[in-house]
């Protein structure tokens, strides 16, 4: 039988006492915080710092982080109630959490593929009912529980075509699980970096636009939300390559009123987090915009944000790409070579300029996500493929060469005719 629950009351009882904030002086950050104003040298030092997660899962939480980031909705305006699953139901739905059903692993646990009955919580046979993704939180670690609560808190209220749908949850003894809609094509990270067949340009633009719409929705609400962990592994794709943002464990309520930012502990992933956020702890919607710029670069280049296997000057994507982005004549050198010439010429120009603006060292100079959506939307319809232009130029060059060869042959014949003329015979015998 279907079980529904107004989950926030349950969560508050469960969290009470378990999520007390640690003293902020115990919070660990890996890079000293400096002033908000920073130069290129300071930023580059940050960008080259590391490829590890900025905060370990068991890091003490700063007192500025509220374990319940968004106030729970009242019963009258709650948009949707989540299903409450028992642990045994999810255990059966995933085949006893068998290893071959693992879809992926995050910092706080595994994600399993499972099947449940439609519109209910009962497990279903594989291939029947509704396919779901079940995230199982590691039982050890208070930080993981906070993120589990944040995930339910945000996705329990936020609904948008470009946000992954949270179906329900399980909170039973020390078990913490979340049940999401299953995303057929997995993450953008897999398609960009782990598959031999390159992701087509048109799909890359579609994914970038969908992810941008998701962020724009978060930033534009009456109670803005800062995603704080925007990266390719958190962008999931359905069968039609529609992008949906997942993993809201680090999301945080944005500034209100006249405030320009919120101050919080520094978490996220090196290579994606905005420099001013890492160096000061000041978090704003423009922090997400910077992260979007990094992902846009990954989509454009087919390179990871951080790659220690590359030469020293190319390990950090932003550091390597920024000089190319600033020169319109060089931007095509950034394009993923696996695409060969199957990309839009104007699209590359627009995407490069957009990435450059998103990665501005001055947060105020970065565009809003609404502005980014407006730039990306018309790029879906461009058909000025580089390969078409290349063939056109090659054809023109061939015609010019043929014409040039013909003129050369004509000139040669004219010269020979003049040389063999009786009027010129005397000159020909001169020695």
From TrEMBL:
ATP binds at residue 135. The lineage of its organism: Eukaryota, Viridiplantae, Streptophyta, Embryophyta, Tracheophyta. Keywords: ATP-binding, Cell membrane, Kinase, Membrane, Nucleotide-binding, Plant defense, Serine/threonine-protein kinase, Transferase. Residues 97-380 form the Protein kinase domain. One of its GO terms (cellular component) is plasma membrane. InterPro entries: Kinase-like_dom_sf, Plant_Ser_Thr_Prot_Kinase, Prot_kinase_dom, Protein_kinase_ATP_BS, Ser-Thr/Tyr_kinase_cat_dom, Ser/Thr_kinase_AS. The keyword S-adenosyl-L-methionine does not apply. This is non-specific serine/threonine protein kinase. Gene3D superfamilies: Phosphorylase Kinase, domain 1, Transferase(Phosphotransferase) domain 1. GO terms for biological process: defense response. It comes from Ilex paraguariensis (yerba mate). Belongs to the protein kinase superfamily.
């Amino acid at each position: 039988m279907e079980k529904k629950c107004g989950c926030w009351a349950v969560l508050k009882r469960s969290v009470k006492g378990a999520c007390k904030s640690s003293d902020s002086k115990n919070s660990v950050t890996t890079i000293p915080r400096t002033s908000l104003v920073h130069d290129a040298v300071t930023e580059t030092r940050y960008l080259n710092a590391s490829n590890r997660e900025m905060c370990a899962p068991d890091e003490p939480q700063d007192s500025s982080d509220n374990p319940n980031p968004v106030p729970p909705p009242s019963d009258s305006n709650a948009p949707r109630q989540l299903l409450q699953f028992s642990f045994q139901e999810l255990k059966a739905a995933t085949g006893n959490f068998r290893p071959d059903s693992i879809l992926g692993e995050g910092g706080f646990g595994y994600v399993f593929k499972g099947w449940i009955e439609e519109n209910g919580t009962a497990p279903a046979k594989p291939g029947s009912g509704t396919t779901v993704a079940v995230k199982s939180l590691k039982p050890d670690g208070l930080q993981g529980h906070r993120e589990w609560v944040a995930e339910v808190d945000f996705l329990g209220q936020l609904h948008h075509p470009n946000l992954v749908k949270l179906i329900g949850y399980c909170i039973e003894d020390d078990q913490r699980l979340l049940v999401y809609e299953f995303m057929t094509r997995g993450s953008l990270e897999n398609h960009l970096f782990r598959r031999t067949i390159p992701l087509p340009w048109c799909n890359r633009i579609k994914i970038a636009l969908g992810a941008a719409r998701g962020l724009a929705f978060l930033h534009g609400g009456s109670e803005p939300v800062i995603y704080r962990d925007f990266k390719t592994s958190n962008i999931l794709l359905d069968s039609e390559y529609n992008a949906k943002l997942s993993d809201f464990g680090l999301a945080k309520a944005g500034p209100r009123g006249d405030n320009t930012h919120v101050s919080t502990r520094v978490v996220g992933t090196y290579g994606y987090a905005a420099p001013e956020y890492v160096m000061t702890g000041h978090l704003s919607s423009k922090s997400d915009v910077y992260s979007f710029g990094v992902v846009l670069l990954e989509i454009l280049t087919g390179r990871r944000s951080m790659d220690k296997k590359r030469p020293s000057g190319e390990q950090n994507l932003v550091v390597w790409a920024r000089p190319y982005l600033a020169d319109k004549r060089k931007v095509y050198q950034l394009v993923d070579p696996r695409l060969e010439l199957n990309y839009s010429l104007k699209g590359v120009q627009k995407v490069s300029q957009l990435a450059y603006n998103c990665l501005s060292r001055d947060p105020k100079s970065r565009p809003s996500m609404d502005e980014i959506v407006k730039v990306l939307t018309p790029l879906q319809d461009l058909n000025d493929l580089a390969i078409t232009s290349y063939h056109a130029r090659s054809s023109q060059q061939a015609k010019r060469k043929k014409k040039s060869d013909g003129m050369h042959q004509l000139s040669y014949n004219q010269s020979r005719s003049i040389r063999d003329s009786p009027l010129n015979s005397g000159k020909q015998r001169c020695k």
